[in-house]
Design a protein that fits this description.
single chain; 334 residues; mainly alpha; Serine Threonine Protein Phosphatase 5, Tetratricopeptide repeat; two-stranded antiparallel sheet; 2 strands
Length: 334
Amino acid sequence: MPHKDVDKIDTVNFDQNDNSVFLNQDATVAAEKPSPWVWIGLGGLLLLALMVIFVLPSVVSDYELPLERRAGLVESPTAERTVLAASTISPFEEAQRALQRKEAQDVLAELLASQGELDVLDVALWGQQKYAASLEQASIGDEYYRAQDFLLARESYEAGRDGLQELIDTLPTVVEQTLIEGERALIELDASEALSKYTLALLLDPENEAAQIGEQRALTLDTVTALLTEAGGLEEGGELQQALANYNEVLSLDSYNEIATEKVAEVSLRITENEFAQIMSSGYVLLQQGEPEKAIAEFQRASTLGIKQDEAQAAIIQTENEIANTEIVRIREL
C-alpha cells in the first residue's frame, strides 16, 4: 500500500457499546470451563478404578462366597501371640528352649514306659496310692509343658518317673508279702482269697515256684477241705481204712497239705497197732491151745509190722522157753 494511503486512514473511536463482542467472547470461554465438582467426580472414579485393580484381587483371595474368611487364613489370637512371642526370642534362646523341650520329652518317654510296665502288672491292686501320686506329677508337668516352661515340665516328669520306678523296684518285696497273704488264706481255707493272691504273685513273678505251687493248692482247696472233713468223721467212727483213703486222696490233690500228711501217718500207725494187737492175740490163743509152734509163727509175723518189736520178740522167747521146758519135762519122765 502506498505510504500516502496510510496517512489517509481515519481515526476510529470505540465506545463501551462497541466492546460487546469481546464481552460475549469472555462469557463464552468462562461458560466452557469445567466445574470443580466435575474434577472431584473424576478423581473418585480414578480412585475406585485403582482399588478394583490393586485391592479387590487380594480381598477375593482371602474370602470365599458369601464373603467368608478362608479357614486357612484366619489367625487365632493364640497364633498371633505365638508369632509375637517368637519374634521377640533370639536364635540362641530358641535353641536353648528346643533343647529343654527335647529333654522334657525324653523324660516323659521314660515315664510312659514305666507306666506301661506297671499297668500290665495290675499296679492298682498293690500300689495304687503311689501310682496315682506319680501320675499327678506327670499331669503337672503337662501344664508346664503347655505353658512352654520346659524346665519345670522336665522336673515334674522326673518326679513322676522316679515315683513309678520306685514302685517297680519294690516288686520283690510285694511278691514276698503277697505269698505270705496267700499262705494265710490257705490256712484259713479261703480258696478265693488264696487264688487271688497267688495269681497276683505269678503276674509279678511268673517263674516264682512258691506262687506256682500255691496257685495249684488254691485251685483244689475246696475239694481238699471236703475230703478232710469227711475223713475226720470216718476216723472218729473207727473206719480207719476209709479215713486213710480220704487222707491219701487229699495228698494226691495237694501234696503239700500238712494236715493230710500228719493224718496219714497217724491213722496208718493206728491201723498197724490194731493189726499188731490182733496178731499177738491170735498167737496167745494158739499158745493156750497147746500149739506153741503156730503161736511163734504169729509172734514173728507181728514183729515184721515194724512196731513193738521188743514185745513180739519177748513173746517169741517166752514161747520158745515154754517149748523147751515142756521138752525137758517130757525127757525126765522117760
